[in-house]
Amino acid sequence: MSKIIIGVICGLVFGGIAAGIMIPMKFEDKRAAITGAFINRFAIGLVIGASNLPVPGWLNGLIFGLLLSLPDAIITKSWIPIITLGVIGGVIIGVITGIFGS
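The structure corresponding to this sequence follows.
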């Protein structure tokens, strides 16, 4: 299967997990917060699947998981949960696309 398709599927799953985690939390604009989190995590999967860096898959995932999580972490000042989830998800998606992608 192509790396982009795998990245899209992983991004949808990762976005769904991130949105699901946020459902019990309280936000001023809950819909915007959950939508933003979903789009950010989906983008991590898409970019990892579409990228072709000359590094192992896990490192590719770590790089993009960190880079794409930084803006949200800076804006919300919730550094540890946002970056941790982005990096862990990015590494997992990087490994998956590295193993199953062609």
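Residues 58 and 92 are 7 Å apart (CA to CA).
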